[in-house]
Amino acid sequence: MAIRPPVLQRGDTIGLVTAGSPLDANIINTRAQTIRDMGFNIAFGRNVYSFEGIVASSAEKRAEDIMSMFTDPNVKMILATRGGTGVQTILPYLDYDVIRDNPKIISGYSDITVLLNILNQFSNLITFHSLMLGDFRADTPSYNYNQFFQATSTAISPRSIQNPPNIPLMSLVQGNVTGPIVGGNMTSLINTLGTPYEIDTKGKILFLEEINSPTTMIYRYFTQLSMSGKLQDCIGIIMGECTTCPVAYGTTYADLIRDWLVPLGKPLMVNLATGHGNYKATIPIGASVNLNTIENTLTVLESTVSV
Description:
By secondary structure, this protein is of the alpha/beta class. It has helices spanning 25-37, 59-71, 96-101, 113-123, 142-153, 186-190, 215-227, 230-233, 253-261, and strands at 13-17, 41-44, 75-80, 105-108, 127-129, 159-160, 170-173, 176-185, 205-211, 236-243, 268-272, 283-285, 288-292, 297-300. The chain is built from nine helices and 14 strands. The two termini are 16 Å apart. The mean pLDDT is 97.
């Protein structure tokens, strides 16, 4: 069983880290104040405001910020300011044994995908494909907060993951499987293939989402996932949105799912509202879930935090 981090409560301290690309200081400060207004304290990583071009700071410095949050007894949760790019470069500089011994809630998506999955693989920690700092703003849908706090501030079990009203979950291949859930942003996961940090999908339920990639690129991604055995190894697939993904050669995202994933014969659910879209379901990476595409349900079977 994966390690559950301690529950998040009002009054706890949330540590902010910039693990990939930089974020404007004014945005960081404004969003941090939103979190304070919700009843939490804030700790800033030493390099949270840094700007060194494509990435905020060196891989070593960004990794040091993450490690300092894991070892700080006052910090209960680590929140990524944004994704962007470059998160993969910090992975060699993390101490996975120390992280295993100091479990914390860690949340993000986009390029943070690689960190979430590797912390689960190497430290056996449940992580959260969910909100980043930029999502704490006035126009964030209540659905997003409800999903996030149900997963991180309660020990509800089992917990059904449902889409917002009027956004139906749909199942294309029927079946019923149970296993750990892994995955996230396709671009980020593809970039790890052939490295020591590639995603392990064997016996797991794989979920995928993407943004700003034309369907020619999604075709390439499905090719790579297939040729690397990741689609064959998993026991079920959940497809999230492909946000602002242009159609190429008259072939849509839905067409590619039909052509590449349906023939695998594995339980297949589509249209999960998570990742880069307006609505963000919270997916606990490494937690045991049941994917029932006969009843069209997705259920987290265990509490994802310890109380």
